Amino acid sequence: MQAFEANFDGLVGPTHNYAGLSFGNVASRNNEKSVANPKAAAKQGLRKMKQLAELGFHQGVLPPLERPSLKLLRELGFTGTDASVIERAAREAPELLAAASSASAMWTANAATVSPSADTADQRVHFTPANLASKLHRAIEHGETRRSLSAIFADEARFKIHHALPGTPALGDEGAANHTRFCSEYGAKGVEFFVYGRSEYGQGPQPQRFPARQTLEASRAVARLHGLSDDATVFAQQLPDVIDAGVFHNDVIAVGNRTTLFCHQRAFLDQPKVYDELRAKLDAHGAAFTAIEVPEDEVSVEDAVSSYLFNSQLLTRTDGRQVLVVPQECRENARVAAYLDSLGRRASPIDDVLVFDLRESMKNGGGPACLRLRVVLNDAERAAVNPAAWMNDRLFARLDAWIDTHYRDRLAPDDLADPKLLDESRAALDELTTILSLGAVYDFQR
Ligand code: SUG
């Protein structure tokens, strides 16, 4: 059946800030305690959505979560009015208030792993929200994420939204940031590629410096839940060294689309074997696999981590050509810029490069690919999606005005102690549920 890839980007929430919460994510640590601009962050993300929609790509929006999370703070023993909960948390445990306030749900590549209906045993589109167990500020996302997904993909005959895996180190799951799907056409059965950082029960090597967030056991569980067949799944381990160099998700070093894998030379353990397995399994599904491997001597892992070259979106245009969507930082790194310029001269399946300013998100380690969740849909499934979630000129204008009304243009770490931020954030989200026809998805509305 005819199908296409839609990208659902996370709308940046009003509490976007730099709290240095993600050990192992170099940008998050480097920008800890700097002053954020939530309004600019939200507008940068929104402009990407609008421009990609204008170019003919299927573009949707996912809402931010309720932050600060009073639910978390109350679960951790802070009591009293909402204002006194925030005030006490700010005084006694600012790190917990920061975790409760993070706008990290903007990186919807971590919202869930998604398998299209062409791949799943029951021919529904399957979503497993990621437990994000490795970081407190992210481990609190999945319940609310599940609610948002259920408000947008509500038709249970077509969409199956699982619960997250148990949130424990053995089953750390970071969602689609460690998952790519290869296929001949989006509507044909594909090969799903799961990349993990370590195995809890296996013997493989482990990173020494930074945590490996995704386990093999979690990846296998998601594949089982989605009813994927063995002949259509490949599991590969990240090189532990590159996790230690700041590649905390596979989408910092690799991106795939249809039959193309664009990755660094140092992405996976036993990389040639990974290619062979992908090639063989894709071949059996009538598709010819191509790897575009970028060598270390042209672009180092360090360049990849600082520029986010591979945290790009590789998209198929309506004319069948592929475009790479990269952050502006790629233009500011001479080696990466030279590599991108050389693409036109090489026989490459990447035909065009689009550059976006996503600086606010990038400073927390979130590039173009982090900001989007890919959902392959056929026409019938598309018709079942909440129509208010699709980006178009009208939605852009409404969201742009909504950001102007509700967002601050400056948020410093100390501002998280301000109880007015909670009221502002709730007022914004309350209006958003109307704009996106979500119903009462937030706790404060129930
Ligand atoms: O989980 N940063 C996020 C970035 C996620 C990027 N996603 C993908 N690569 N798909 C993370 O590390 C930083 C928040 C702070 O420090 O305030 C943060 O959570």
TrEMBL record:
EC id: 3.5.3.23
Q: Does the keyword Hydrolase apply?
A: yes
Q: Does the keyword Hydrolase apply?
A: yes
Q: Where is the active site?
A: 174, 249, 370 (nucleophile)
Question: So, what pathway does this thing act in?
Answer: Amino-acid degradation; L-arginine degradation via AST pathway; L-glutamate and succinate from L-arginine: step 2/5
Q: What EC class is this? A: hydrolase
Where along this sequence does the record place binding of substrate? 19-28, 110, 137-138, 213, 251, 364
What reaction(s) does this enzyme catalyze? Answer: N(2)-succinyl-L-arginine + 2 H2O + 2 H(+) = N(2)-succinyl-L-ornithine + 2 NH4(+) + CO2
Question: Tell me, what's a Pfam family for it?
Answer: AstB
Gene Ontology molecular-function annotations: N-succinylarginine dihydrolase activity
Organism's domain of life? Bacteria
The protein's UniProt keywords, in alphabetical order, are: Arginine metabolism, Hydrolase
Name one process (GO BP) from the record. Answer: L-arginine catabolic process to succinate
Subunit and partners: Homodimer.
What this chain does, per the record? Answer: Catalyzes the hydrolysis of N(2)-succinylarginine into N(2)-succinylornithine, ammonia and CO(2).
Per the similarity annotation, which family is this? Belongs to the succinylarginine dihydrolase family.
How is this protein named in the record? N-succinylarginine dihydrolase
